[in-house]
Amino acid sequence: MIHILNDLINVAGSLCGGGGYAHGIMGAHSAGVFDLLGNVLAQQATPTVTPGITTAPGSESLPLPKIVMIRGLTLGAVGFLLAALVGKPVINWLRDRGIGKSIRIEGPASHQVKTGTPTMGGLIFLIPLVLLMAIFMDLLLYKSLLLPLGIVVSCGILGGVDDYMSTIGHNRGGMTARFKMAWLLVISTVAACILYFPLGWHDMNVPFLSPINIGLLYIPVAIFLIAGTANAINFTDGLDSLAGGTSAIAFVSYGVIAYLQHQPQIVYLCFAVVGVLLAFLWFNAYPAMTIMGDAGSLTLGALLAVCALQTGQWLLLPLVGIVFVAETIAVMLQVLYFKLTGGKRLFRMAPLHHHFEMIGWSETQVTMRFWMVSMVGGMLGVALALL
Predict the structure, then answer these.
(1) What distance in Å separates the CA atoms of residue 93 and residue 81, rounded to the nearest whole number?
(2) Which of 144, 227, 238, 383 has the smallest number of CB atoms closer than 10 Å to its CB?
(3) CA atoms of 59 and 51, how far apart (whole Å)
(4) Beta strands of the chain (E only): which ranges?
């Protein structure tokens, strides 16, 4: 069986375009599958660009080797394995410390059985993601990845503190919404300034048109996108597998867009996120053994927005993240309608996934159907990025 796998690997290596990359893969035959894995992860590719496709400022016009996608997918597989290994220990650690979810009394009655489910489960994918970025993504070469790494650490800490506060004391509401939003805006502002000044992003890409330089307006737009997407995925995190699955689909979409734009560092990042998220879904599948909590949802949202901004295709984010947008708009409309009508409700319950539960859809039906909508949005997003 091992010989068959090695033969298949050799064939794949021969299709990689020859040269140093193909030689590195072909040479792994005698060393076996695990040596091949190490060789692929050790390969690097300089950020490049094809004329007519918007990429990172300062990139050159050279073809992108296939090893970039091979390495990105391999990083995803390694991320899956790492997250799968840490999953059970993290869940046990959270359970031993009583870090369990509190369920709203006004929420669906079927959710009361989830009371006490370990929250802060986002650690399952955040820890392996930080390790992958620090060890395999060559932060000295791809300095722009320091920004996503900072987002993962800062938002992970912010969300983790909120998760912990929500499980202790008599008032289990966690941080106040204003306090949490203030810190999220600070993180978003720092990220936006880094994107605009050191990294030189200032364009708005519109399908069928050339990139439009929006100048300093880019900074408030970036702040809004980062903070807004973080809150949007936080709203979406209400059913088992919902936020994790839809986020994975969105990151796949931006990973493909980054590959088409010849930005290997974003390809590596996006597929690494997909890999660790798939492992998290192993433990978050209905009925969930753990819930990602704010540590996971805030980080995923901010990180997705940063990836969108670094590809220049942030205008497509509402389409790629169509479920997140729908969930957020439903919450806003519900609050507005409630205030304008003196207590009436537009939806049976908000966020939107609870509305569909209240009209008779099962939790798994809502999740699977929202995944399908996410896939369609992602496909359309990639299609528009090609125009």
Answers:
(1) 19
(2) 383
(3) 10
(4) 48-49, 60-61, 203-204, 212-213
CA neighbor of 302 nearest in space, from 142, 210, 189: 189
Residue 173 in tokens: 């509401």
pLDDT, one tens digit per residue, over 142-187 is: 999 999 999 999 999 999 999 998 887 545 667 888 999 999 999 9
Burial class of 92 by CB neighbour count within 10 A (0 to 12, 13 to 18, 19+): exposed
- Which pTM value belongs to this model? 0.85
60 — phi, psi (to 5°)?
Answer: -105, 165
Structure tokens, 46 = 């300089």
Q: Where are the alpha helices (DSSP H) in 60-166?
A: 67-96, 123-136, 146-165
Cα separation, 347 vs 276, whole angstroms: 34
304 vs 368: CA distance, rounded Å: 21
Q: State the pairing for strand pair 203-204/60-61.
A: unpaired
What is residue 64's DSSP assignment?
P
Greatest CA separation found in the chain? Answer: 74
Q: In angstroms, rounded to a whole number, what is the distance separating the alpha carbons of residues 129 and 276?
A: 7
Contact 248, 277 (CB under 8 A): yes
Whether 75 and 272 have beta carbons less than 8 Å apart is answered as: yes
Which amino acid is present at 120?
M
DSSP characters over 289-329:
S---HHHHHHHHHHHHHHHHHHHT-GGGHHHHTHHHHHHHH
Per DSSP, the three-state class of 60 is strand
| Upper half-sphere CA count for residue 371 (Cβ side, 13 Å) | 15
Task: Find where tokens 């359309």 sit.
Answer: 380
Task: Give yes or no for a contact between 236 and 354, defined as CB atoms under 8 angstroms apart.
Answer: no
The amino acid that residue 58 corresponds to is G
How many Cβ atoms are within 10 Å of 272's Cβ, its own excluded? 30
The pLDDT tens digits for 249-271 are 999 999 999 999 999 999 999 99
Which residues have CB under 8 Å from 150's CB, separation 6+?
A: 190, 191
Residue 211 CA to residue 350 CA, distance in Å, equals 37
